[in-house]
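Quick one: co-fold with phosphoric acid mono(formamide)ester.
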Amino acid sequence: MKTRNVLDLTDLTHDELMAVIRLADDIRKKPADYAEVCRGRILATLFYEPSTRTQMSFQTAMLRLGGTIIGFANPQNSSVAKGESLKDTITVVGGYTDIIAIRHPLEGTAAAAAMYSPVPVVNAGDGGHLHPTQTLTDVVTLHNEMGRLDNLTIGLCGDLKNGRTVHSLIKTMSTFKGNRFILISTPELTIPQYIKDIINASECTYKEIPSLADAMPQLDVLYMTRIQRERFSSIEEYNRQHGVFILDKEKLRTAKKNMKILHPLPRVDEIDVEVDYDDRAKYFEQTVYGMYGRMALIMKLLEKGDKKYPARIMPSHPFGCKNPKCITSTEKYLPGIFREAGGDMLICKYCDGRRLI
Ligand code: CP
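Sure, here it is.
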């Protein structure tokens, strides 16, 4: 595979993505054929933020491929607690290992890590920004459960502002023709403008509505999400949003018989437990599809097997990003890098935040 780092799933070409999906299916059907393919290779999981599924499915993926794992689940148990920079941590860990999966509470961290890593970097979630391997999980699930990735009506419900899984999923599904996104949220938690711009530039459409019940009969897929408490500045603000959308058996009465219910998990209470026993609920199967997706991605990223420290990247502009949740707000040595978005508008390379020149 030509792609070296996966900061978002759209870093893969369409052909690369489809090859990963097909490989994930083959591994799921014939796991013994792949039990030794990563013998001698080492995955680092650097998790600066809590995780169950992403961390453990990356780890089990590498172990099932015959490789081994190192890393931390709590940066306070590493030299990060002594003040070590992201740049130095990545440079050192990249010297020990063959591939790095990193999760961090700040947006753009994986992009920053990739600037210093001699081995492939996979974004395992960067703040409220992106979560490409959750999207890989989602598309492997849809490919198997729906039989297609185009011409689907997909309802996304909950915290569309802070839900990184939603952002990555829309970006990837917008690359397939004819998908219709129904965005169900409160006015405070609508999708960021840059994601709407991506849909507008694609062959897909969206509409925003405040009612899950109104959307339900149209949907081929319902993607429920948790209200992301850790992204709110106060508990009062979170409490105003929490509990607005709850999926229960009664709400499913008007849903299509073959609709699929997905959720990246963890669930808090936005899906009633009784829904788990409905045949349309696929969120636990989804977690297993994700492990096979990550096995396939690791294999493809390790095909080249070279180790190369990237050349120094120079700033594109003499100033920084204004987003306080961007990794550049704490790792001050990072060069300010922006792409031009027309007029005086610039978009930060790390976090997709916008600022004026
Ligand atoms: N879906 C997901 O990212 O779950 P974790 O936070 O448990 O990794």
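If it helps, The chain has ten helices and twelve strands.
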